[in-house]
Amino acid sequence: xxxxxxxxxxxxxxxxxxxxxxxxxxxxxxxxxxxxxxxxxxxxxxxxxxxxxxxxxxxxxxxxxxxxxxxxxxxxxxxxxxxxxxxxxxxxxxxxxxxxxxxxxxxxxxxxxxxxxxxxxxxxxxxxxxxxxxxxxxxxxxxxxxxxxxxxxxxxxxxxxxxxxxxxxxxxxxxxxxxxxxxxxxxxxxxxxxxxxxxxxxxxxxxxxxxxxxxxxxxxxxxxxxxxxxxxxxxxxxxxxxxxxxxxxxxxxxxxxxxxxxxxxxxxxxxxxxxxxxxxxxxxxxxxxxxxxxxxxxxxxxxxxxxxxxxxxxxxxxxxxxxxxxxxxxxxxxxxxxxxxxxxxxxxxxxxxxxxxxxxxxxxxxxxxxxxxxxxxxxxxxxxxxxxxxxxxxxxxxxxxxxxxxxxxxxxxxxxxxxxxxxxxxxxxxxxxxxxxxxxxxxxxxxxxxxxxxxxxxxxxxxxxxxxxxxxxxxxxxxxxxxxxxxxxxxxxxxxxxxxxxxxxxxxxxxxxxxxxxxxxxxxxxxxxxxxxxxxxxxxxxxxxxxxxxxxxxxxx
Length: 557
Known about the structure:
By secondary structure, the protein is an alpha+beta fold.
């Protein structure tokens, strides 16, 4: 029993140590450029297209037309410094601030409701930016099979260099125009709505030439491997690419995978994304046949994107290609409405089936108490209640073991030089006293998946970012600034340890005494929300175990 308990505690410690390597600290500060803000009108037809994003149509496909792969999408100009010098259009809504250059590439995206630091609310977090070590942009364009088409290196014309969503307006439409001088005109427009992190992209081909135009659209995300907030002292969450399709479902495509080769495939519907802790950008093409691809570029930059099947636009006609860019926080309720599977970017791993209901419970409690810290405490109480019978069984077993400690110690001293005989006598005593040596371990093992699921829920929930609790805890997503909660957690572990039977082996006993100190050191750097859970869980466990132990010692059970 002592060996089993010792192995169990070491196992839990190793699990926490492994989890500890995946936490990611918050993003460093960046400068924000002040811009002139002006009013703009919007196109009512464009606004209506947000109503059903899954119904976006790519037009009639020409089965006889075959595309030839990546083509111009990944040429060396992707790294050209000249692109950074392009003229830019600044677009501001109530939640986003964008800079779109004259190629129609989104080169800066600030999230106005998400500051880099809580004590600097006027400096928004930059999801997109063009810095050597922090490169993340959203590109798009057209690929012509016959005729010409603008790509993300072409130059568009635009009428204004600032757009701002005014009070009473629901959306902005930001148009760019391109023409080849021979009758083919393209109007590329970005449509942004109030309170929305979805950006509708329209690329309208107007064919006023004498020959048919055949081509399709593409959209891609390009980012550097290193990016703001990617480096961490302790834990790291996943940063990299994701592809979702009906066939393959949710697939992580990390930078090493992209470096090893092109992971292209043909799919129907789906989406591609680059994700990081709390935030993501995802291109969602029409729900039809698309070709998904990945590209590795020099200077540790990577591309993930898709292009559509070609469409024939006859002389005198036009066609509008549409896709949606989601660029913002990982808010599950919004992502569920945006595209199938997009909410899976809030990654609970193999324990998603447990993480989802735990998050649902946490979110509903928060809706009542309006405080994520209190919601965590209430979830802890519910989980503890669910496992009450298992915990009670474990505590009864440990209390009986604790009661047998003097007898076990006497047997150990008697057979100190005969370990096989000692084990035999010990098992006989367990049988006589009706004590199950596994009774204290198995109930705890059953609960470990739930503990790990709750851990990932607290790690992945963007709503906890900068969320205050009480007193000195003003951000549940970062460590306790004064380390009070980790110290309370260590103290609660020490109390629990005193309620458990002391290992007969003196070496194990000494090591066990070190665990509260070791775990306290681990938890010094854990997010306050997670430590709050452990403090509450340990407090409830101490209450329950103390009650059961006293009953066992009085002979009431």
